[in-house]
Design a protein that fits this description.
Blueprint (H helix, E strand, L loop, with lengths): L1 H14 L7 H8 L8 H6 L12 H18 L3 H6 L5 H15 L2 H6 L5 H8 L3 H7 L7
Length: 141
């Protein structure tokens, strides 16, 4: 997991964003073809991670970052595994860690003095559920 977060953070630094990351730009820097991360694209790719119709933009961004993580860390074999009934839990956790480090700069969140998960989610454009799963909220001073 440490490698995954290190790689995600490194990609974030390479595109030097403040606030929300342009996921398609990050994919371009990483040399990964995301092909436009729309709901139709997710369904075309096999549907395992496809959101429901009308999925919020933050979920599409999260899923795209997760997929970039799989490509960079595991050569993108997760879709083949999923279609054949195999799930590599460690690889999934790594892709989640990568997505978090790519999309959220915890230091920036601390600088902004965010204290609530919804604040982090709104500022970085990620699902609040992802924040709840990854962010260690700072102690209130």
């Amino acid at each position: 997991m440490e490698r995954a977060t290190r790689e995600g953070a490194a990609l974030r630094r390479r595109i030097d964003p403040r606030g929300p990351v342009d996921v398609e730009a990050a994919a371009g820097v990483a040399g990964v073809d995301v092909g436009g991360w729309s709901e139709a694209r997710w369904n075309e790719l096999g549907g395992q991670a496809a959101p429901d119709d009308g999925a919020p933009e933050e979920w599409l961004r999260w899923l795209a970052a997760h997929a970039i993580g799989h490509q960079m860390l595991h050569g993108g074999d997760g879709q083949w595994r999923a279609r054949h009934g195999e799930v590599d839990t460690e690889a999934e956790l790594e892709a989640e860690g990568f997505a978090w480090a790519l999309l959220v700069d915890e230091r920036e969140a601390e600088t902004m003095r965010f204290r609530e998960p919804w604040q982090v989610a709104a500022f970085f454009g990620v699902p609040e559920k992802a924040v709840l799963g990854h962010w260690d909220m700072p102690e209130l001073a």
